[in-house]
Amino acid sequence: MTDRPRIVLGLGVFLVLAAYPVWSALASSAPPERPELERATDSIGCVEDTLWMKAHHADLLNEWRTSVVREGTRTYVSTSGRTWDMSLTGTCMSCHKSREAFCERCHTYADVTPTCWNCHVPPEGGLR
Amino acid sequence: MNESRRRFLKELGCTVLGAGVALPLLDPTRLGTDVGKAASRPAAGGARASAAAAASSRQWAMVVDVEKCLREDVRNACVEACDRAHNVPRIPDPKEEVKWIWSERYEGVFPDEVHAHTPAATREAPVLVLCNHCTDPACVKVCPTGATFKRESDGIVMMDMHRCIGCRYCMAACPYGARSFNWRDPRPWIETDASGKPASDYPTRTRGVVEKCDFCSERLRVGQTPACVEAANAVQGGEGALTFGEVSDPDSDVSRLLAERNTVCRKVRLGTGPNVYYILPGATPAGDGRA
Question: Which pTM was predicted?
Answer without folding.
Answer: 0.77
